[in-house]
Amino acid sequence: MIRIIAGRHKGRFLKVPTSKNTRPTMDKVRQAIFSALKGKSENAVCLDLFAGSGSMGIEALSRGAAKCYFVEKDPLTFRTLRENVLSLQEPSEKYELCRQDYRLFLKRSRDVLYDLVFLDPPYRYTIDKDIIEYLRDQGRLAKDAVIVSEQDYPNAEIEGFEMKEYRYGQKHVALYRKEQE
Questions:
Q1: Range with the poorest average pLDDT among 13-22, 64-73, 84-93, 114-123
Q2: Which end of the chain, C or N, has fewer beta carbons within 10 A?
Q3: pTM assigned to the model
Q4: Are the CB atoms for 38 and 44 separated by under 8 Å?
Q5: What is the torsional sign of CA 13, 120, 159, 137?
Q6: CA 160 – CA 157 distance, rounded (Å)
């Protein structure tokens, strides 16, 4: 089990999916990420793509996010995600649970602007740059959006974003801040 670090649900434990494809962000890493975000989650519209247990989006909700979209394709992992989100007893307008492939979700949800995006795809995937460029090119990011990219490889520089990368063991975590136009 993992726990929520701060906010109104601080200390609450979350279930962890049993899938071998899921690796929840450890408490210490999540705490470091949210410290680096400096309150960015407050009143934010968030996207937790490849949500897994939902720990990143749930942490954002606990810290005052306006809404979080949770996207997870794996049916067993989605069941755990759903249990975790519903256990918060948040009003239904604060979250949306989507069991579908990330590509389908991104194509269908064109009317949403995201302030904060969490990307943590399954092991060995290096698709974060493609997703970030897609969100940028489709005009899906708020003007001061931040994207958190977690992957097993160094993150790439992306045009239109300032990037700061951190390393936690084998995990590379980058914060991409959309440059002001």
A1: 13-22
A2: C
A3: 0.94
A4: no
A5: negative
A6: 9
